[in-house]
Amino acid sequence: MRTEGVLAIDRALTVSKPCLVRIISIGGLGVNSPSHLKIMTGYPLQSIIDRQVFSHTAKVIKGGLLTGTSVDDSMKGLDTECRGLTILSEHKDREFLGFVRPGWDRKSYSGCYLSSLRKDFRERYSTAVRGELRPCISCNFCEEVCPAGIMPHLIHKYLYSDLIEEADQSRLDLCVECGLCSFVCPSKIELKSQFVEAKGLIAKEKEEIRKEEQARQEAIQENNQ
Ligand code: SF4
Ligand code: SF4
What we know:
Distance between the termini: 62 Å
Oligomer: single chain
Number of helices: 7
Largest sheet: 5 strands, mixed
Strand order of the largest sheet: 2-1-5-3-4
Structural class: alpha+beta
Order of helices and strands: HEEHEEEHHHHH
Shape: flat
Bound molecules: iron/sulfur cluster
């Protein structure tokens, strides 16, 4: 169950009232200005779109760009699970035989357009959309698939901040290194390799502490004899 569901149940149990109003985000390239809306469950989607979206050929996605689902005509109102809407402009017009025009203003990584001579694209062709490392988007997918029942995204954030002790306390030791978290991660964060490395580091540190303690105990025993 998502956070909204838990909050709705909490409200129903503590103040005996249904949770009717929600706050959703609306963003994407097709909106007039990205914002948050306080809105009732069941509010007509078309009214939101008429007010916020400037392009009539926009695609509406329930949720984020990577994890959301496309909204079709059957979804009339805002449902209880919706946390936000992403609006994308769709270009329906296609240039006739556009692929044969070696334009100066077209981006290409394969050198098939004249523009590739300029060599000034900011984008880089790599595993990420822009060639950069991508941040965790808190989609929770990794936690949902983890067979060890730990929170890979939380441990990742601890390790990212060099908080090794906190990562250890979050039961990183339970990780069975199956790699499912890395597989499902839409940001393609190398969670498993990060965890394997951190586990090795923690085990080494614990071993060093154990040896120091053993040496200390032996020294105390020698002094007592
Ligand atoms: S690699 Fe570890 S943290 Fe990731 S899903 Fe498997 S057990 Fe969970
Ligand atoms: S680490 Fe990846 S899968 Fe896990 S919450 Fe973050 S983006 Fe989602």
